[in-house]
Amino acid sequence: MLTVPLDASPANVATTAPRRYTTKQMGDACEMIVAAELTLAGIPALKVPDNWPGYDVIAQPLNSEPQRISVKSRTYKRGAAYVGYNDYDLFDWLAVVLLFVGEINSRQIYLIPRSVTDELARRDQPTSKTASERYFRVDQIDPLFRRYRANFTLEPLEIPA
Question: If DSSP codes are grouped into helix, strand and coil, which group holds residue 59?
Answer without folding.
Answer: strand
